Amino acid sequence: MAKKAHTSKKKNRIITNVSPVDKQLDLIGSQIVQRNYVEAVATCERLLNYLPQHAPQRADVLAQLGTAQGMLQHFPQSYDAFTQARTLEPKNAELWYNRSMANRFTMRFGQALRDIERAIELNTRSELTEQFDEALQFSRQLTEKSHHIART
């Protein structure tokens, strides 16, 4: 007669060490998903005051801040946040793309075009290619129109 395998009635627990910074980043992400952009901005600002200037998470916080500011239509602040994030991660195509979008809304059409061109150069994610290409075409149109208006 075969013996029954003994199964433990205790639940398997997975213990993870989540840093306070990661918890705050998760909170910011939740606030943005819930469209609570004012709170997301406040949480980002608190976290930026806490983080050292060269902390690896700083670019993530700045990117979230840029997103929240953009959703609040605070485009100069969004531009500033994406510019700072891009300085920390100069090869991040999504930061270049997002700064390009902020440039559009602050009427910096030439800079928006240069930023989206750089995003395309740096892009390694095929799922973003179409979105970036559409943004490039639109930025070209805006730049051409603004140059035409300036000449007349």
TrEMBL record:
Keywords noted in UniProt: TPR repeat
Record PROSITE patterns: TPR
Domain of life: Bacteria
TPR repeats: 59-92
Record-given protein name: TPR repeat-containing protein
Organism of derivation: Ktedonobacter racemifer DSM 44963
